Amino acid sequence: MSKEQFREIYARTPDGGVQFAASADRWHLYEDFVHLAPHHQRGGLLRHEAQLKPFVDSPNRQALVIIDMQNDFCSPGGWTDASGLEYQKCRTAIPGIQRAIAVARERELWVVWVYWHNRPDLRNLGAPTLYSFKHEPSQQGIGQDLARGQVLTQGSWGAEIVDDLKPLMREEDIHIEKVRMSGFYGTHLDQVLRTQGINTLLFAGVNIDQCVTTTMEDAYFRDYNAVLLEDACSTSSPDFCREAVVFNARQCWGFSMTVEQFAHARPFKSPQSDETVQQPT
After folding, report:
1. b/e per residue, 204-236, with b = 16+ CB within 10 A?
2. How do residues 65-98 score in pLDDT, each as one tens digit?
3. Mean pLDDT score, 201-207
4. Catalytic site includes residue 211
5. Residues 143, 152: contact at Cβ < 8 Å?
6. Separation between Cα atoms, residue 253 and residue 220, nearest integer Å
7. For 252-278, b where at least 16 C-beta lie within 10 A, e where not — what string?
8. Which residues lie across from 240 on neighbouring strands?
9. pTM
10. Which among 68, 237, 209, 82 has a CA at the least distance from the CA of 144?
11. Domain Isochorismatase-like: where (predicted)?
12. What is the mean pLDDT of residues 189-204?
């Protein structure tokens, strides 16, 4: 196999596909699916019935990323609740996340927990971020006191993962403390994923239209394979916000699917070896 054969963008593959990118990062596009790992030829490949197209991938390259399932967003008495928003809507993600974790454990995927842990002195936050969560002087913003402690502050009740998910956490899981909506900004998430050989990220959590979507976009910008688990995400925002994220997950950033589609991925066998690639004519 010549290395030059895998460096030609949009090269035709021997089985009628089209190559995207090059070398070990290449995809193969077909009429009825996208192969995210054509260089993996020996066992373990799964076909996921996602939108807009099904995709084939190796579980060895995947991680489940769970974002901001914290009391301040999802529990009574938390920040969302105190702000007059519907924290119950955020809780609708919990069953899907529980199911997704079970599947991830069965397939031995990495589980990544991403959550806000702000400094008590708030020196990690600039004015634009503070304003985005406090539009009126009377509002309680990040770091300010509620009945059960400071909002989204390291060590506070509000910053803890909800009780429904705590028993599912493991010490060996990856834990990422963030101070912006995106789980990549100012954290070591990218380095940890790359050193563990993770290429495909399955996203779950809240809010789908804020912290989930910005993290998914940043993953896409960094050339990770991004997959939204639709029913393992939720938001207290209006429904059209969720709809826009699902649309863009499918059209722009990667793929979307339900947790049950994730759970029922089918074994996939490559029809032929990826030893040669035809050049476009």
Report:
1. bbbbbbbbbbbbbbbbbeeebbbbbbbbbbbbb
2. 999 999 999 999 888 887 888 889 999 999 999 9
3. 97
4. yes
5. yes
6. 6
7. ebbbbbbbebbeebeebebeeebeebe
8. none
9. 0.90
10. 82
11. 63-261
12. 96
Q: How far apart are CA 181 and CA 185, in angstroms?
A: 8
Beta bridge partners of 178: 116
| Domain boundaries for CATH 3.40.50.850 within the chain | 58-260
Q: Which residues, other chains included, contact 171 with Cβ-Cβ below 8 Å and sequence gap of 6+?
A: none
Active-site residue, 178 included: yes
> Torsion angle, CA of 51/57/60/62, rounded to 10 degrees?
-20
Q: Say which of 57, 74, 81, 211 is annotated catalytic.
A: 211
Tell me, what DSSP letter sits at residue 118? B
Distance CA 209, CA 194 (A): 26
pLDDT tens digits for range 118-140 = 888 888 888 988 888 888 888 88
Q: Which of 57, 178, 231, 233 is catalytic?
A: 178
Residue with tokens 């077909």: 30
Give the tokens for residue 77: 């008495």
The position carrying tokens 């009429």 is 31
- State in words which class domain 58-260 has: alpha beta
Active-site position among 57, 68, 72, 218: 68
